[in-house]
Amino acid sequence: MNIAIIGTGIAGMGCGHFLHKKYNLTFYEQNNYVGGHTNTAYVEGDKPVDTGFIVFNDITYPNLVRLFKKLHVEVYNTDMSFSVQHVPSNIEYCGSSLNLIFAQRKNIFNPKFIKFILEIGRFNKECTKILDNPVYEKYSMADFVREEGYSEDFLYKYLAPMSSALWSTPTDITIKFPAVALVRFFKNHGLLGLSTQYQWKTVRNGSWAYRDKLIAPFKDKIKTNARVKKVVRVGDKVKVYDEQGGETEFDKVIFACHADQALALLGDASHLEKSLLSPFGYQRNIATLHTDASLMPKIKKTWSAWNYRIENVNNELVAHTIYYMNKLQDISKKNDYFLSINQPNTVNPSKILKTIEYEHPIFTPEAYKAQGELHKLNENGHVYFCGSYFKYGFHEDAFTSAVNLCTKLTGRDAWEE
After folding, report:
1. CA 173/CA 284 separation, integer angstroms
2. Which phi and psi (to 5°) does residue 189 adopt?
3. Whole-prediction pTM value?
4. Distance from C-alpha of 303 to C-alpha of 84, rounded to nearest angstrom
5. Where in the chain is the domain with CATH 3.90.660?
């Protein structure tokens, strides 16, 4: 059986891993590299630094952990600290300890700041009550916070920044995220206080180290710089038309790309496919790898793995995340390296090493509703779908969707050899 797989992110590579022994596969990748968000850059010659997928843990990434063990991928513990720098009010804090929360000693005597910190503790303790209460099903994050009497400082200097950093999405979008889904994610990922945190890990020698092991058996089946133009079902076959003018017939096609991309490529999308794929929008994000330390908090001891900077740019309040890559990965003892998400114009151009464009799914109430029925797309037929949009938008979610799809396609547990 001939199968085309469109996209070589972790979903596409995962499908390749489970299917290459049984089927004749052809991969279409629009980029000039394989991996999607599995994307490693190199600094100081040969030192790897990841720019997309960076961290995971043993608890909420079970399938990815299983894959890494199967492939003998070397991993090590990393840091997942978080800081906020609110430039207009000159507030800086890091949530790792009481000492770093009050890194600016003036805040010990600041009633507004103390109230804000107490609100974080209150939220961590009380927010899970909404998980069992259907009343909150239609609430956005902002709706819930305001109804429960939390301050705007709590929303815009803690909850929105943390959510925006997690999903690489602007605060004006994240505050509209469904509250129940957001709290469930925080709970499941150990993000409700220091006592609930998991040990996070990263891949030794960068994520391309696992990519290379994963694709080794089917590397020759992958076409890069191969953008698909359209996909059309013809009888019991499926035709793939690429932008180079190629036309190839397959028995089945797997869309391992973004939901909106899949829908745009389907020349004969069914009503079900349109209704379940169209609710998913995507946020375009620019990741800038650089050495500009001027954007980091002034108090260096608050420098964290994830740093959220809020500032005025052209009389508009803007925010972006800066990953301190030296804390996240074992890169360099000599130089500091940072990865800024969006606002590339604020980085000193002479200190930019690389710029990469990514897209992340935007989770609206309509998208979450569609998620509950996405499995219907893979019940029968000759066209199949997988990707991170099947759940929270993370690496584990994309790979798990591939595991589930391959189990469905082969009629047995995908992990069985």
Report:
1. 13
2. -105, 15
3. 0.92
4. 9
5. 81-196+282-362
What architecture is domain 81-196+282-362?
Alpha-Beta Complex (3.90)
Pairing of strands 306-313, 82-86: parallel
Cα radius of gyration (the chain): 22
Please say whether the beta carbons of 236 and 248 come within 8 A. Answer: no
Torsion angle of the four alpha carbons 403, 408, 413, 417, in this order, in degrees rounded to the nearest 10: -80
| Average pLDDT per 10 consecutive residues for the chain, totaling 417 residues | 98 99 98 98 95 95 98 96 90 89 92 92 92 90 94 90 83 89 85 76 98 99 98 96 96 98 95 97 95 96 92 78 95 93 89 96 90 94 97 96 97 92
**Domain 2-44+205-279+364-410 bears CATH identifier 3.50.50.60:** yes
Q: Rounded CA gap, 357 and 286, in Å?
A: 5
**Backbone CA torsion sign across 48, 49, 52, 58:** positive
